[in-house]
Amino acid sequence: MGDAPVNQFRGRASNVMQIHDVHGDLYLHEPQPSIRLVAPHQLPADIRQFSGREEELRQLDALLHDEPAAPAAVVVCAIAGTAGVGKTALAVRWAHRVRDRFPDGQLYVDLLGYSSDAPVLPSRALEGFLHALGVSGDAVPPGLHDQAALYRSLLDGRRMLVVLDNASSPDQVRPLLPGSGTCFALITSRSGLAGLVARNGAQRLTLDLLSHNDSLDLLRDLAGARRVEADPHAAATLVDQCGRLPLALRVAGERAAAEPGLP
Predict the structure, then answer these.
(1) I need a surface site. Which of 12, 98, 139, 196 has the fewest CB within 10 A?
(2) Strand, helix or coil for residue 254
(3) Is residue 80 a contact partner of residue 204, using CB atoms and an 8 Å limit?
(4) What angle do CA 162, 129, 109 make, to 5 degrees?
(5) Separation CA 190–CA 81 (nearest Å)
(6) Which residues of 231-255 are buried (b: 16+ CB within 10 A; e: fewer)?
(7) Distance of alpha carbon 122 from its chain centroid, rounded?
């Protein structure tokens, strides 16, 4: 008896079957795209050194409804302010404070609206959100409008927090807004996003510079309270030179901490 024939296959195919004799009909079924809803928790880590912003945190708290299922319209809040003023830090701090109010998950994306890299397209952000919600790759629709429709359908009735960081324009944000009043969308941008306020009813929270005292508190956390108190005039001058911008204070405070012998 000779050797059995060797079956070989090269290339790509959806279905491959090895058979000997077939009696009757043969049916091949494509596997169905899958959607298995999960609760994503995508918030970035909160930062320990955080100063001030008590009033802004209270304003954000006031936007939360006592009963998440009651409102018919999604709550949208846009935190606006100049570069380095702490928009992302505030958004992330508040999001962690209220995450228990959104047990179905928290979505986050950095839209890179003001980065040297290209801004994130809404379709790319939606694709990432859909994957995070449990949609398999072959179940993601190819077009932006269909992606947004599926996204809104999956969020409908769920208590979800969506954080859209560093948005550059309303058009970059609109496809990413939930449609259900059980959700909350929090946006940060250097722009006031006037179109989002006018057409989508977004609440705008404009972030100002830190107060002088809050700036000193942040510098104490970063460089050490003893060092700041040892030379209060120099600390106050440094705060002014940093323009009371949290990002600039963090850079200066980190350099001071790294060089303890520096006056």
Answers:
(1) 12
(2) helix
(3) yes
(4) 55
(5) 5
(6) eeeebeebbeebebbbebbbebbee
(7) 13
